[in-house]
Amino acid sequence: MFKSALAFLFISVGCGLLLVFTADLTAPRIEQNRLAARLDIARTLLAPLPAEVNLALPISGTCDAVLLLNMVSPGYAGDIQLLARWQPAAGVAMRVVAHSETPGIGDFIDHTRGPWLAGWDDTLEGDIPTIDGIGRATITTNAIKYAFSQALHRAEVHCER
Known about the structure:
Number of strands: 4
Shape: elongated
Strand content: 15-25%
Order of helices and strands: HEEEEH
Structural class: alpha+beta
Distance between the termini: 70 Å
Radius of gyration: 20 Å
Number of helices: 2
Strand order of the largest sheet: 1-2-3-4
C-alpha cells in the first residue's frame, strides 16, 4: 500500500510539473493571440487604426478624434471583456473581446455570431435605456448596458482633464 501511495505521489507531482511547464511555455503565445484578436476587433471599430491608439492602455487616442477604451463588465458567468470606441458627438460602439456567458444563450453579444451588439453602434447616453434585452439573458444585457454607460462616463471624465 505504501508503494502505491508513493507511486501515486510521484505521478501526481510529475503531472503537476508538466502542467506548470506547459502553461509557462504557452503563456506568451496565448497573450500574443489575445492581442492579435483585440487588434482585429479594434480595426473593425476604427478603420484605419490611428497611430495614437495603444491597445495596452485602458484608454488611448485623442478626445478631439477618437478614444479606444478597454472595458470589463460583470456578466452572468463571469467578466465580459469589451473594446469600446468613443467619438465626440457620435457616441460609443462596442465589441466583445472575450466572455464566458452561457453558450447558445449569451452568444448574442458576440459580433461574429450575430448583429445585436453592432446594432447599437454610436450609442449616446439617452439611448442606453432603449437597448432591448434578449429573452433569458437579462444579466448579460444589463452587463452590456452597464458597459455602454461606463464607456461614456470614462470618456467624458478622460476628456475633461
